Amino acid sequence: MAPTRRVAAPENSVTCEAVTKAFGDQRAVDELTLAVRSGSIYGLIGPSGGGKTTTVRLMTGVLGPDTGRVTALGRDPATLKARQRARLGYLQQSPALLPELSAWENLRFTAATNGVGLRRRRRLFEALELVELTGDRHKRVDELSGGMRRRLALAATLVHEPELLFLDEPTAGIDPILRARFWARFVELRDEGRTLVVTTQYVGEARFCDRVGLIDQGRLVADGTPAELRRQAFGGEMIDLVTTAPLADDLVERLAKVPQIEVVRGERIDLRTVRLVVDDAGERLPHLMRWLDGEQVGVDSCEEHVPDFDEVFVTLVKAGHHDEPEQGLAGRSEG
Amino acid sequence: MILTSVLAFVRRELVSVVHQPRLLLTMVLGPFLVLLAFGLGYRNERLVLQTVFVAPTDSPLATEIEESAAGFSEFIDYRGITDDVFEARRMLRNGEVDVVVVLPTDPLDTVLSGEQAEVAVIHDKLDPIQQTAIGFASRLAVDGLNAEVLARLVGAGQQGAQPVSGVASQLGAAVQRLADASAASADQEVGEAATELADLGRVTEQMATVGSQVLARLEPDQQVLTPEQAERLVADARRLQDEAAAVAADPAAGADRIDGLAATVEDIRQRSGELAAVDPAVLVQPFTSSTSTASPTEIDITDYFAPAALALLLQHIGVSLGALTFVRDRELGVMEAYRVSPLTSTRVLVGKYLGFTLVAALVAVPLFLLIRYVLDVPALGDPASIVGVVVLLSLASLGIGLLLSLVAATVSQAVQYAMLVLLASLFLGGVFLDLERLRFPVEIVSWLLPVTYAISMLQDVMLRGRAPAQSDVIGLVALAAGAALAAAVLVHRSLRTQ
After folding, report:
1. Which residues in chain A have Cβ-Cβ distances shorter than 8 Å to B18?
2. B1 part of contact set with chain A, CB < 8 Å
3. Inter-chain contact B342–A115, Cβ cutoff 8 Å?
4. Which residue has the higher pLDDT, B475 or B208?
5. Can you give the CATH number for the domain in which B195 is found?
6. Do B340 and A60 touch (CB under 8 A)?
7. Which of B31-45, B135-149, B161-175, B301-315: highest mean pLDDT?
8. Same structural domain for residues B314 and B392?
9. B430 and B307 co-located in one domain
């Protein structure tokens, strides 16, 4: 569910307070409230058409909210002065490039329009190196593949070294090796003190984020650190127990009632395997091992299970749908 | 930062064009080659219409036409005369002739009954310009025919008046005898001379009356032969008769009247002499014309159209570049990037104006040099004025293009708008048709086209060698400024949060 807390501006580079944006009858963003802390990576994940791009466009000031309030760098983004806008970087979902110009000329144009002075050659090369396009810099954009264009667009977004970056699906169509490199660079940028708002459909990339907002049907279904989201999805942390012999049902029932372990939920995976949800896996694991030893249960393995984000994502989205069954998919608009 | 971002647009537009050398070559060489082909291939000759005449074989005009058709008009190629109107129409249908001229069946009766005889001209041209030319040629031909017929009538009138001249000399002798007899106080001789004068006056009156009736058939604008002249002759003859009769009745008082009689006879002699002396062709065609141009040089058809072609091309380049730029930026998502960037509407607009003006100059300079030195089109005026017109034209055209771009929803819509402007310029911009002929509400469209002013200004500077008309300069500056202002408002609006 979308949190309803109010956000404090000073330490946040971006805030949205009860923001709603509709296109015709369709609400693309619905009562969305979130805050992006300065010097952090905020990941916006969610299904296609869930409202991620509209949220980013609201944050950049491209769109204005119907209701609610958005701030970027402490101000309504629509009122930012030119000098303040020079501190923003914006990668659109579809690369905004000029097809008749070369990669180098595109980069130079974007740098110049963002106020980078004439001594920008080094920056241009650095940006091209990051996206591995140095060798292709003289190719015209209409000669580049889709992935190369995406990389070039990212380089163009970074070339003026913005303080607050909005990256709408920067890794879409990029091979896994380069994706990892991109994320390493994003983390570096974060470590340099910059703030990044990144949307992605690769749910696994949420692990690189300091905080993640899950948007579905325009609503913020969940908002927290990756660990918090896991806990939110499954009700706690998980321990997978695999025994050497089949587990009797009564043993599993008794295990669920052991006070020191405080099993929130138990799920039998197969005859020898059971998954236990506990509030804190690290704390409960020693108690569990002692109890099993006392019961003389042969243990093959007993360790914390860290679910991947796809699993977290699906669970949270499903939970969101259960909470708002009447809404269905009607609220979906652009990505 | 401002200069950097403005220069970014200038470089972008220039590089975009430089990356398309074929486009640049087409923009320069295309219009030049069209003009060259036009100059080489256009037959700068009069429209000569192959004409067949239709008249009954016994028509008095048939012989007239055959004898003098070639001289009717320089616009008519005489292809014969027939009495079969259907045959003539068949020839028209088959393209053997351009025009059929059907002469009236009984022209003399019609004319002598005081009505104009109609000459029908039939053609099958669809082109309004050719239709006008045919109407013009037909009128000239009919005028020629009228003149020919009138000249013959006048000749006949003069022949009718010729005996009057002979009588006039007899009148002189009779007056002299009267004077001599009166001086000798020979009353009988005075009476005889007076009676002779009265008889001669009667003869003069009759002849002058016949002449005046013929001359009365002439057109009112041919005043030199108006019936008044002949009527005065008739009146003089009557007065002569009266005066002579009075002398004959009272020879003793003849001495007092001799001077009056002598004066009347002198009047009659002069008028009959004037009447016979005038060339009939001059009487029916009293005026001729000669034309010359005020331009300091000879202007041929290519020279005339070169400024219009240059203006039209530069306008089209400006409008097209402008019309595509914002709508394309919008479709590419670049406008959205501008909104988040430090760019302001002024920087974007100034950058685009500068960039596109340089592109227009890239086209205009070589094209002008080709027109000037290869086609040998004169450029008599101040080169700075030509540069000024080109710059103003480019700015105004860009402004209109930018407006179209900001209004258009898609690239194809912007292209359509640009084509509409081109079409409007062809018909309403003074490229081919005279703007004087446009009625008021439509005139407004022509005032909104930069080419309207630019053609007039370039013709003034290049062909007449004088400075552009102030009204044209004001019009083009106002158009450029208005378009820029409107574009600035729309760009500002489109860069704002949606």
Report:
1. none
2. yes
3. yes
4. B475
5. 1.20.120
6. yes
7. B301-315
8. yes
9. yes
DSSP for B102-122 reads E--SSHHHHHHTT-PPP-EEE
Last residue of a domain, one of B98, B124, B150: B124
Q: Which residue has the tokens 């103003």?
A: B392
pTM above 0.90, yes or no: no
* Domain at B117, CATH number: 3.40.1710.10
**Nearest chain A Cα distance for residue B399, angstroms:** 22
User: Is A192 found in the same domain as A160?
Assistant: yes
Q: Report the alpha-carbon distance of residue A319 to residue A170 in Å, rounded.
A: 28
Structural domain boundaries enclosing B483: 2-39+300-494
pLDDT of residue B162: 54
- Structure tokens that stand for A81 in this block: 């002065």
Nearest Cα residue to A242 out of A214, A271, A201 = A271
Closest CA to A13 of A220, A157, A187, A195: A195
How many domains would you assign to chain B?
A: 3
Three-state secondary structure of B461-490: HHHHCCCCCHHHHHHHHHHHHHHHHHHHHH
Together in a domain, A68 and A16: yes
Boundary (domain end) residue, out of A231, A259, A274 = A231
Alpha carbon distance A314, A325 (integer Å): 16
**Do A247 and A223 have their domain in common?**
no
- Is the Cβ of B343 closer than 8 Å to some Cβ of chain A? yes
**Domain CATH number, residue A285:** 3.30.70.1560
Let me know if residue A98 belongs to a domain.
yes
Instruction: Answer yes or no: do A62 and B497 touch at CB < 8 A.
Output: yes
B338 touches chain A (CB under 8 A): yes
> Number of structural domains, chain A?
2
pLDDT given at position A325: 37
Among chain B residues, the shortest Cα distance to A83 is held by B342
Do the domain assignments include residue A49? yes
CA distance A217 to chain B (A): 21
pLDDT over 90 at B249, yes or no = no
Q: How far is A84 from chain B (nearest CA, A)?
A: 7
**Residue from the list A62, A94, A105 with its beta carbon closest to the beta carbon of B498:** A62
Q: Are residues B461 and B318 in the same domain?
A: yes
pLDDT tens digits, B310-328? 999 899 999 999 999 999 9
Domain identity same for A250 and A220: no
- From B334, which residue of chain A is nearest by alpha-carbon distance? A96
Distance CA A103, CA B116 (A): 82
Q: State residue A335's pLDDT score.
A: 36
Domain of residue A185, residue span: 12-231
Among A21, A54, A62, A113, most B C-beta atoms within 10 A, so best to mutate, is: A113
**Record: contact B342-A60, CB cut-off 8 A:** no
Q: Same structural domain for residues B277 and B328? A: no
Burial of B40 (0-12, 13-18, 19+ CB in 10 A): exposed
B342 contacts A86? CB cut-off 8 A: yes
Partners of residue B344 in chain A, C-beta under 8 Å: 82
Q: Is the pLDDT of residue B72 over 70?
A: no
How close is the nearest chain A Cα to the Cα of B349, in Å?
Answer: 13
Q: Determine contact, residues A189/A166, Cβ cutoff 8 Å.
A: no
CB-based contact B338 A97, cutoff 8 Å: no
- Going from the C-alpha of A21 to that of each of A25, A44, A168, A216, A217, the distances in angstroms are 10, 17, 18, 14, 12
Chain A hits for B350, CB-CB cut-off 8 Å, are none
| Residue range A312-331: mean pLDDT, rounded | 58
Tell which wins on pLDDT, B397 or B93.
B397
pLDDT of A7 reads 40
B498 touches chain A (CB under 8 A): yes
Shared domain check, B487 and B351: yes
The Cα-based distances of B204 to A240, B235, B442, B452 in angstroms read 149, 10, 65, 67
Q: For the ranges A275-289, A315-329, B365-379, B479-493, which has the lowest average pLDDT?
A: A315-329
The 10 Å Cβ neighbour count of residue B120 is 12
